[in-house]
Structures are given as structure tokens and as C-alpha cells.
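User: Can you model how nicotinamide-adenine-dinucleotide sits in this protein?
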Amino acid sequence: MHVPLVVLGGGPGGYAAAFLAADLGIPVAIIEQDERLGGTCLLRGCIPSKALLHVGRVLAEAREMEEWGIHFEKPALKLDQLRARKDKVIATLTGGLATLARRRNVQLIRGVARFTNSTTLEVAPAEPGGASQTVTFDHCILASGSRPARIPAFDIGSPRVMDSTGALELKEIPESLLVVGGGYIGLEMGTVYAELGSDVSVVELTDTLLPGADRDLVKPLQQRLEKLFDTIHLRTKVMKLEDVGKAVRVHFEGPEGPSSREFCRVLVAVGRRPNSDGLGLENTKVVVGPKGFVEVDGQQRTADPHILAIGDVCGEPMLAHRASHQGKVAVEALHGEAALFAPRAIPAVVFTDPEIAWAGLTEGDVAAQGRTVEISRYPWAASGRAHALGRTDGLTKILVDPETDTVLGVGIVGPGAGELIAEGVLAIEMGCSARDLMEAIHPHPTLGETVAFSAENYFGLATEIYRPRTEAK
Ligand code: FAD
Ligand code: NAD
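Assistant: Here's the modeled complex, given as C-alpha cells:
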């Protein structure tokens, strides 16, 4: 079979690319090993985790009502129903993707693909009994995604040791759960299990949770998690796991020396690895870097003129919106447009409670680049809306170029930060100045106002914050 454009992988990168190609009149097929479209994000990542985090947030809000004089009885958990409701969200969305593919005449080829040369893929059956087929193409967009990183010493063959996919299956709510890795997945899934009733502990190798995020954003989250979780061990390494029947015995090495403790389950969330191996890329001219990421240029082209690559397989940050955006750039490039993947801001959101979101430069970037910026922080304690919601623990900050007043970065921590960051992305992409943010009328009373107020504060002119006149610009 020959198809002008083949997309290898049906995740948010792959299906966005294939659908745009079809819209532009390019005959296209998606090869996917899973029986459903959606990839990691929809089937075992973003969407199921956010559905469960929504449940966790509702449980937390019900508890918070106590101080407003509203008492709810302890909630009863029907785990089968919760699991089924989560699975329904996935089924609805993946069914929608299948319909959209059909309507656009995107051909779906089920199987495990492998390059035999720069223009040929062998597709092995995804299930026993199926037939192999050969697919040739003019161009292929590789969108094979990533998988959980594994630590060989933790592969003890115990069903009590799980990765994010296992954790999202929600087989049980264990009495105690150890999360190895204080990153995105560890803190999001730790929050879910803690809200559903597990005693959650987190062990993180470095000296902070979410090492890539700004400290002032992490602080309010860490303070809340210290109450929600049983223990947070920083600068601590898990040396060994032992299945002891009804539990896993975990041996730690931390600042206070060695220790060990039993947990009903262990979630390992120590990062993800690109799916660039086992694809036969050695039979093409594609170059794979030392960390396993496929190397691409600004148009997502690899060193092989027939092959482009997008999403998790070609670098970090491994985020769904980056994958989809790159998918569109790749297709536009093939369509002859002057497309380029050169964003000023790829937003990042950690959907914990509070949420943490940032876009553009972080303080870490500024330090690494030796750049001078001015940082203006607006504490939510000065926001009427935050008081009305009982959530004054938030913070909105902007990083501004002091020469031009251009907004270079925005960081937010607080409930809904993931929604609020969109304004920061637009501001950075549009090259807005702090004055633009300040002078755009924001609705009152909203948390969105804190973005404008942080710009007011940059000029020393925030209504709800007093700064002596000498400090005002
Ligand atoms: P993937 O979604 O991984 O899709 C790759 C597809 O390729 C898969 O369907 C796979 O089956 C298929 N494939 C691979 N090899 C072959 C082969 N040889 N033959 C046929 N098919 C193949 N990102 C966010 O932006 N927001 C979030 O909230 C978020 N939450 C997450 C939560 C969890 C628990 C996890 C694990 C990830 C989360 N992510 C989130 C990351 C996000 O899921 C990924 O960045 C995104 O899915 C990457 O898209 P992709 O298209 O590059 O690859
Ligand atoms: P991560 O990189 O976010 O965090 C992994 C953490 O594990 C780091 O803090 C690291 O220091 C720590 N670590 C590494 N080895 C360790 C060890 N041996 N012991 C203890 N700690 C160790 O990775 P993740 O949480 O697995 O998530 C993978 C990726 O998936 C993320 O980087 C992100 O790109 C994506 N993701 C995004 C979202 C979102 O957008 N909300 C949610 C989940 C996942």
C-alpha cells in the first residue's frame, strides 16, 4: 500500500497532524498500535488524570466548606463507579476522534510500525492472528511519543509497584502509597490518591519538589501538600524495593541516613523516555541524540528528507499542546508554507491543588542565561476574589525586561492557575508590555485581575498594595 503521508502514532501530536493534513487535501494515514486514537494523553495521561483531579478538588472543596458553616458527611467512595465514569470520559473523546478521522477520510492502520528504509514501514499486527503489511510513503511524520522511565532495580515483578498507567487504572485505593518522584505525575497522582483516602508519601531525589518550577510558585503547593500527604522526603534515594506479601518494603537513603518502611503500593514516576528505539530508525537517515530524542530542525524535519518528527519523541517539554503544535508546523511545512516552531512561550501547568502554571522565562532561565529582568509579584492575599474563594495562598508574578517593559515570563500558583496562564501566553507571544497588561480592563472580581495587578505593581501603582512613592516608576 502507498500513502503520500503517513503519521506514525495516534496521540495528540499524530492526530492533530493527520487531521490538518486531511483538511489541506493531503491523503494521509495514521498507523497506531492501540485500538483507539488518543495516545498517552487521552488514554493514560492528561485526560484521565485531570478527571480524577477534578474529583479530588471537589472533595477538598467540600471539606473547606466546614469553615463556612456547611457540614458534609464523610463521602462514601464507590470505586467501580468512579473508574467507570473516568473511563466514560476517555471513551467519549476517543470515539469523537474516530468519527473525526472517518469524516476527514483519514485512513487508520492498526499495527506496530517499523522502518525498513526511508520510505517503507513494515506494520506487524497489534494482536496475534493478524496479518503484516507493508506501507510505503512520500513523507512520514513520526509521532511515537514516550513511555515511563524505568529503574531496573525497581522491576521486582510485584503488582504493588506501578507506573502512571497502573495508577490511573485505580484498581484499589491503598491504605498507604509511596510515590517515587516529586514531579508532575508524582504530585498530581499523589494528590488524587490522598484525596481518595490513601496515606501518601513522596520521595524526591533533589532538594525540592518540581525542580523545574520557580521556588515561590512551589512554596504554597508544598505547604498544602505537607498537610495533605503523610511525608515528603527530599534529597532521598530509594535504594531497594522488596515485595513482602501484603506490602512493599522500601529502603531509603536520605539526609538522616538509611531507613526503611512498608507501603501497600508504590508509584514510580521518575520521568519519561522517548519511543525512538525499536522503530528501525537505524534503517533511515534519522539522527537520534544521546538522550534518545529524534533530532529535528525548526520545521520538524529530521536528517532524513522523507521523515519529520513531532511531540515527545523529539524533545522536551513533553507536553500535549507542544506535540499538537509541532504536528501542525510539520504539516504546514510539507504543504509548502513558511511554518516554524519557534514559540516564545510553551505553557506548563501542574494540575495540583493549588495549580502551578508558568509561561515564557522562569527565574531559573533568567539565572542560566545571565539576563536581567525585574520581577513583580502580586500576592492573592490582596485579591478580593481570592478571599471570596477562601484561597489567598496564590501568587501571580511577571518577569519584565526593565529596558523595554516587555513581559518575558508569567508564573501563577493558585486554584485555576492553568486557565489563567493563557493570558500570560498571549501577552508574551504578542510582545505585550507591562503597561498593556495594566491598561487592559480586567473584570472584577476575578483571579484574572491578578495578572493586571502584577503589572500595576511593577510600576508601583497597584491599588491594593501600598508602595512608598519613591519606589514607583
Ligand atoms: P503519545 O501521546 O505518547 O502518542 C504516541 C502514540 O504512538 C501512542 O498512541 C503509541 O501507541 C503510538 N506508537 C508508538 N510506537 C508505535 C509503533 N511502533 N507503531 C504504532 N504506533 C506506535 N501533557 C500535558 O500537556 N498536559 C497534561 O495534563 C499531561 N498530563 C499527563 C499525565 C500523565 C499521567 C502522563 C503520563 C502524561 C501527561 N502529559 C500531559 C504528557 C502528554 O501525555 C504527552 O506529552 C503527549 O501525549 C505526547 O503526545 P505525542 O503525540 O507526542 O505522543
Ligand atoms: P518529571 O520529570 O516531571 O518528574 C520526575 C521527578 O522524579 C523529578 O523531580 C526527579 O528529580 C525525580 N526523580 C528522578 N529519579 C528519581 C529517583 N530515583 N528517586 C526519586 N526521585 C527521582 O517526570 P514525571 O512526573 O514522571 O512526568 C513525566 C513527564 O510527563 C513530565 O515531565 C511532563 O512532561 C509530562 N506530564 C505533564 C503533566 C502536565 O502537563 N500537567 C502531567 C503529567 C506528566
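A couple of observations from the model: The domain at 2-147+273-334 is CATH 3.50.50.60 (FAD/NAD(P)-binding domain). The chain has a mean pLDDT of 97.
User: Helpful, thanks.
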